[in-house]
Amino acid sequence: xxxxxxxxxxxxxxxxxxxxxxxxxxxxxxxxxxxxxxxxxxxxxxxxxxxxxxxxxxxxxxxxxxxxxxxxxxxxxxxxxxxxxxxxxxxxxxxxxxxxxxxxxxxxxxxxx
Length: 113
Ligand code: SF4
Ligand code: SF4
Fold this sequence. Notes:
This protein is α+β, with helices and mostly antiparallel strands. It has a domain at 8-83: Alpha-Beta Plaits (2-Layer Sandwich), CATH 3.30.70.20. The protein is 30% helix and 14% strand. Bound molecules: iron/sulfur cluster (2 copies). One iron/sulfur cluster (SF4) is lined by residues 27, 32-38, 56, 74-75, 77, 79-80.
């Protein structure tokens, strides 16, 4: 899987280069019936649709929101899987993501005053 052009807004996840984080959906081709649910519903345009095979394709894996598993839930054919969520929690702890969150929270609360 290759992410050809990673738009700037997806390049980092709380200061961590996105390509250092191994988080994206995997599709089991045998189970995918090509319903299109994931293609249409993902807000980050991670999927393409192969018209010939009538299957979803993970075309832009690095655009997947770290920790999101929505498409796994939407796929009633259980064709989508992710790494264990403990992987994300480990990154949050080890890469000090909560320090960045603290800053962002402060900014947000100031804005909403
Ligand atoms: S939701 Fe599941 S079955 Fe439907 S296109 Fe996506 S992977 Fe395939
Ligand atoms: S987990 Fe969320 S962001 Fe990632 S591909 Fe699925 S719906 Fe899109």
